[in-house]
Amino acid sequence: MHLVYPAVLAALLFCTGLYGVLARRNAILVLMSVELMLNAVNLNLVAFDVWLSRAADDKLHSGQAVTLFTIAIAAAEIGIGLAIVLAVYRGRGTSDVDKLRDTAEGHESDGPGGTDAPDAPDAPDGSDNDGTEPPAAEKAEATA
């Protein structure tokens, strides 16, 4: 078998995974796309190992050994990644990557007290009170 067939298949798998990482909003689908990219790398490692071992009469198969390490790292990555996604989903209520990026940058999403909320109107007496706490004079009388 020619080296071109697995190389083209690996390139297609990698491009599909790259598209999934760049276009998806769900964190679990992004992790699945990363796994697809790692599988494309594994396919290339095995294909080039077989091709190079035939050319050099080498019996070491180092490409296949590296592939086993890559599979082990991918399994650990998906386990830790899913744990992180579940923890974030429990805390935030969403696994949307864009919303998580906004909260990491310090922007609040639509909600009370967030940056997207309009300013509260001024109090009728001209003070800067938004109605949640009594004016300063009433507060001083209450404490005295």
Defining key terms:
144 residues; mainly alpha; 5 helices; 67% helix
Describe this structure in words.
- With 144 residues, the chain is mostly helical.
- The protein contains five helices and no strands.
- The chain is elongated and about 55 Å long.
- It starts with a helix and ends with a helix.
Beta-strand residue percentage: under 5%
Q: How many strands, what sense, and barrel or not for the largest sheet?
A: none
Taking the alpha carbons of the first and last residues, their distance comes to 92 Å
Specify the overall morphology. Answer: elongated
User: What radius of gyration results from the CA coordinates?
Assistant: 28 Å
Mean pLDDT: 81
Uncertain segments are none
- Topology pattern, helix = H, strand = E: HHHHH
Structural class by SSE content: mainly alpha
What is the tally of beta strands? 0
Q: Counting H and I runs of at least 4 residues, what is the number of helices? A: 5
Helical content (DSSP H or I, runs of 4+): 55-70%
